[in-house]
Design a protein that fits this description.
With about 300 residues, this protein is α/β, with parallel strands linked by helices. The chain has a single domain (about 5-300), classed as Rossmann fold. The protein is built from 13 helices and five strands. The chain has helices spanning about 5-10, 30-35, 40-65, 85-90, 110, 120, 145, 165-185, 195-210, 220-225, 230-240, 255-275, 285-300; strands at about 70-75, 100-105, 130-135, 185-195, 250-255. The radius of gyration is 22 Å and the shape is globular. It binds adenosine monophosphate (AMP) and magnesium ion. Adenosine monophosphate (AMP) binds next to helix 7.
């Protein structure tokens, strides 16, 4: 487990000043780990991750049986920050029946013809399930803010180009949307995987150098990297405006993959446990029915 006071430091506090530069992408738990050799660190990390996954599997089992709450996990990050790996890791611990992943790419013409939340609403998890959004409606205030031409007909009639008011309206709509979901039994957890620009370069080079990783590299990744500062500004504004008690943002250190995975699994497990999901009660009436069924089966030839 990551210490609860550290998890608390990663959470963006509603109404408080928020600066990305106060968050260290290279953080890795404690000095105690610095002294470990590479192999010992790997082993230690694996032990932490294994415990995490066992805890998560147990929590998910209860969530599914209880059937009152849904969990929505939102993952946002720059390219190569480890979203896919985090999903793979977190999912490896849970029953696939109670889980779904939705990845959002460039919207289609049909999606663009609707309001910006439409396509995401259709992918929301139902009660008892965990839904992971690999990118989300936050792209509509991130990549779209960096490249406003992507708005197309989503710009209100008469508006020349989107200004401060336009983005503030979107933040407001997102907060209202998440409040609505929370009131209807969806627990929302949002993670920004905070990768440093230096580590992104290292990972891009690895994708270029290792043939089995080539497929992960796309030329547009480099183009987006040139807009790094604009993205960081967009993230800072979006996280500050939309981190609420019902739907908090966590800024997760992403330069060390095992830290990212441990933090996400930890926050999700803690949140599900906080709901205290239970296996449904068996009433006296149920017990009678079960006894009758047992007798019937036993009486078979
Ligand atoms: P990847 O997740 O690396 O496969 O890339 C998906 C691409 O789709 C990224 O370049 C995103 O910026 C882009 N994308 C996702 N959502 C939107 C959106 N709402 N509008 C425009 N582009 C988007
Ligand atoms: Mg990509």
């Amino acid at each position: 487990m990551i210490r609860p006071d550290i998890i608390d430091l990663l959470r963006v506090k509603p109404g408080k000043k928020f600066r990305l530069k106060d968050h260290n992408p290279g953080w890795k738990q404690s000095e105690e780990f610095e002294e470990l050799g590479k192999d010992a660190l790997k082993e230690r990390a694996k032990a932490i991750l294994d415990t995490n996954l066992a805890d998560l599997a147990e929590a998910q089992g209860r969530l599914y049986a209880d059937g009152r709450y849904a969990v929505l996990i939102v993952l946002q990050a720059m390219d190569a920050a480890g979203k896919d790996g985090t999903i793979k890791h977190v999912m490896s611990g849970v029953n696939p029946q109670g889980c779904q992943v939705s990845s959002f790419k460039k919207p289609s013409a049909e999606e663009l013809a609707h309001d910006f939340l439409w396509r995401y609403v259709k992918a929301l998890p139902e009660r008892g399930r965990i839904g992971i959004f690999n990118r989300s409606y936050y792209e509509d205030v991130l990549v779209v803010k960096v490249h406003p031409e992507l708005l197309g007909r989503q710009l209100p009639p008469g508006a020349e180009k989107p200004g401060k008011k336009f983005w503030e309206a979107r933040y407001e709509d997102i907060v209202a949307f998440e409040r609505h979901l929370a009131r209807n039994g969806t627990v929302i957890l949002k993670f920004f995987l905070n990768l440093s620009k230096g580590e992104q370069k290292r990972r891009f080079l690895e994708r270029l150098d290792r043939p089995e990783k080539n497929w992960k590299f796309s030329a547009s990744d480099l183009a987006e990297r040139t807009h790094w500062d604009a993205y960081m500004d967009a993230y800072e504004d979006a996280l500050a405006a939309t981190s609420t008690d019902e739907a908090p943002w966590y800024v997760v250190p992403a330069d060390h993959k095992w830290v990212t995975r441990a933090v996400v699994a930890d926050v999700v497990t803690t949140a599900i446990r906080g709901l205290d999901p239970r296996y449904p009660d068996v009433t006296d009436e149920d017990r009678k029915r079960l006894a009758a069924a047992r007798a019937q089966l036993a009486a078979e030839e």
